[in-house]
Amino acid sequence: PSLLFSVLPSGLNCLQRNFPCYRGSPIYSSFAINCGGPQIMSFDQIIYERDNEAFGPATHYMTRTGRWAVSNAGLPADSNNPLYQSSSLSQFTNTLDSGLFQTARISAGSLRYYGLGLENSNYTVSLQFAETTILGTRTWRSVGRRIFDIYVQGNLEMKDFDIVREANGTFLRAVVREFRVEVLENYIEIHLFWAGKGTCCVPAFGTYGPLISAISATPDFNPTVSNNPPGGNKNRARLIVGIIVAIAVTSLILAAAAAYYVFQRRKRQKSFEDDELFKFDVRPYTFSYAELKIATNDFDLANKLGEGGFGPVYKGTLEDERVVAVKQLSVASHQGKTQFVAEIATMSAVRHRNLVKLYGCCIKGDNRLLIYEYLENKSLDQLLFRTESKSLYLDWATRYHICLGVARGLAYLHEECRPRIVHRDVKASNILLDSDLTPKISDFGFAKLYDDSKTHISTRVAGTIGYLAPEYAMRGCLTEKADVFSFGVVVMEIVGGRPNADSGLEDDMIYLLEWAWNLHENGRELELLDPTLPQYDANVAKRIIGIALLCTQASPALRPSMSRVVAMLTGDVEVPSVTSRPGYLVDWKFTDATTFATNAESSTSEADNGYMNTTTSATMATDLSYMNSRTSASMTPDAAYNSPYNPAKPMLHDIPGDGR
């Protein structure tokens, strides 16, 4: 036996014969391991020791300090180049320590970790997982299943553990499981065991077996041991040498003090920008700038989707094969750091099937980017109004479902999410369509958190001419009813297949709202429908037009809530009849000559999709008046007051509580 142990690799002797490692003489009260990766300090200041030694099918390793050890057994079947480590450059959600999950230790059969020399008592063991190999790419590569059992101190704690299932089907999401452990013999054993379940060959041969990203054990008691590695006089000698070396280099440090001070000052200035992310309850998912450069082929013009007022948007493909839209904020943009961080923090808290998903953001120096899901059918206005985009036809059923989906998305923003949100710029170009033509509301760049105690916003009016509610355009009075008005305009555009203003039509048809009311008053509502529709449900069409007329009433009090709009669209409640033409149509003649705007219509066009919000000037061509849907506006209330859309006194009479 003595000969056998003399030739065993270092550390194995300690792991044999019922664990003699520091048995009866504990020196540690905690340990933490970054499985498969380098040493890293976590957000809560725990140092996770490195575990990136090369592994084989039958391997063990123990740290030089004897704090922990690992043992692996198993050779992946049909794998010519078996890997026992996994790495990813992706960022992970549901964690403050994404770096911990970018590496992982993998085994084809049995993976054991040991915490050694621990003081006997109760501990909390934290096991951290994130699937980095089988990812959700919506192809056959994503159907793999990694299933294994988890034993702690010999007890089966979790049977048939599936990381993706535990993450509720969300890929690149951290999963943490904690166990209360009693240590009786100065060690903890964590055993991950593949019991032959799951898939074997997806996305590649040999992809199965346990995977773990990090392990930590913390005491549930007040330790009586030092928790420092052994060394005795050797450690003291090292300390003395360290002090001498420190004294020797003091002069060099002093000589570099000025340069260091300048460097730190610049570093703090830049880190301040990044630290703004941590002020919010919901921290957005962060990408590295290098990762986005690779995804967009260094922001190649061939991948450019469009140009907005805040900068260009590029199509990109991430390492996990997700296709994204990368919105690159222009350095010259007037949007400040606080506004940018507020936008991504707000968007990160919003989740609904009818809202565009924000995957994350990137802040690196002056580079600020937002990463959205990419929607291949782009924006609603392209499919409705642009001849070159009409190869994809929207039939009646699709248009109905788009109206209903947008209504549900706005109802969520107004009434369900916390804090409530007013979009402020609901329009056809801000409604994107996925592969199934499911509508998703985009662009929350102007969104403001809705405060019940503040309905009059003192900041500038931001929105798009043609969709602005009267009280918002005239007085800056912002409530969720401003979105209801805009929704009503969009609905009319959807059923009519035309923009809300078209100077190429006959005089009585130029302005969609005016024409809709003329038809309604004469019982000819169905003439509003897109003439290219081969068939439609007349009763449903009349109901939808009635809802749109109700939503575009001049008085906010007369407009329904979006949840009631949803109920009316589904037929759960009746649509009240509307008989009174809004004041902004009664008291203003669109054909009246004006002397206001002298500039030609802005040449700045809407972006090629709704991933960005263009903010062109508020100048308006006389012939298009208020209803020019192709010009986006950021107007002060005074500027709006002097616009051709100003039916001032009649509009004010329509607003409850206004005494004028």
UniProtKB/TrEMBL annotation:
Disordered: annotated segments:
638-660
What CDD domains does the annotation carry? Answer: STKc_IRAK
EC number(s) recorded for this UniProt protein: 2.7.11.1
Could you tell me the membrane topology recorded for this protein? Answer: Single-pass type I membrane protein
Name the major location: membrane
**Basic and acidic residues bias located where?**
651-660
| Keyword Repeat belongs to the record | yes
Note the InterPro entries from the entry: Kinase-like_dom_sf, LRR_Rcpt-Like_S/T_Kinase, Malectin_dom, Prot_kinase_dom, Ser-Thr/Tyr_kinase_cat_dom, Ser/Thr_kinase_AS
Where do the TM regions start and end?
239-263
Q: Which GO terms describe its molecular function?
A: ATP binding; protein serine/threonine kinase activity
- Keyword Nucleotide-binding tagged: yes
Q: What are the entry keywords? A: ATP-binding, Glycoprotein, Kinase, Membrane, Nucleotide-binding, Phosphoprotein, Receptor, Repeat, Serine/threonine-protein kinase, Signal, Transferase, Transmembrane, Transmembrane helix
Q: For this protein, what reaction is catalysed?
A: L-seryl-[protein] + ATP = O-phospho-L-seryl-[protein] + ADP + H(+); L-threonyl-[protein] + ATP = O-phospho-L-threonyl-[protein] + ADP + H(+)
Q: Which Pfam family would be a valid example here?
A: Malectin
Q: Protein kinase domain: from which residue to which, for each copy?
A: 299-578
A single GO cellular-component term from the record reads: plasma membrane
Record's protein name? non-specific serine/threonine protein kinase
Give the species this sequence originates from: Sesamum indicum
This chain is encoded by the gene named: LOC105155226
